[in-house]
Structure formats: C-alpha cells, structure tokens
Specification:
The protein is α+β, with helices and mostly antiparallel strands. It has a single domain, classed as TATA-Binding Protein (2-Layer Sandwich), CATH 3.30.310.50. The protein contains two helices and three strands. It has a three-stranded antiparallel sheet with strand order 1-3-2, covered by helices on one side. Helix 1 runs antiparallel to helix 2. The chain is elongated and about 45 Å long. The N and C termini lie far apart (about 45 Å). The model has no long low-confidence stretch (mean pLDDT about 90).
C-alpha cells in the first residue's frame, strides 16, 4: 500500500514538561509505531526537549478512530506511570 492510500491524518503533540519523561514516552511508543498495520500507519518523533509528536495516517475513519484510541490510551498510561513513579521518589 502506498502512502497516498491514507486519506485521514492526525497529529498529536505531547509536552511532558520534562525531557526524561519525553524520552521514556518516545521509547514506549516507538515499537508500537513500527508495527505493520494494514489500514493505519503511525510515526513517532521528538519535536523538542520535552515534546513527542505522534502522526497517524489511516485509510478510513474507522481505522483512524481505532488507532487514535489505542495510541491515546498508551500515552495516558505511560504518563500516568511516569507520574506515579515520580511521586514514589
């Protein structure tokens, strides 16, 4: 499938406030983004010291909804885990 087959695109930027948390978030999302999924494609990149950008491209609205829900859930879980770890110090 070529990149032009993806009709839907969404970008989410997460600013963590801490470069170490952004590192951790990027490392947590990168393996998932590298997986081959037939109807969607995701890219993770670092945009600044404390920010990570996720870009999702999908063939249809259902694939976009599923991919966004999945990645937003992983982002929420990762940030909640980082926050809990920080509180326990």
């Amino acid at each position: 499938m070529t990149e032009s087959a993806f009709a839907w695109t969404a970008s989410v930027t997460v600013r963590s406030g801490k470069p170490a948390v952004a590192d951790w978030l990027e490392q947590a999302l990168r393996p998932e983004a590298s997986r081959e999924v037939p109807r969607a494609h995701a890219e993770v990149r670092r945009t600044s010291g404390d920010a990570v950008e996720l870009t999702i491209s999908a063939r249809d609205s259902g694939a976009m909804r599923a991919a966004l829900n999945t990645y937003l859930g992983w982002i929420h879980l990762s940030l909640a885990t980082a926050q809990a770890a920080d509180r326990s110090r």
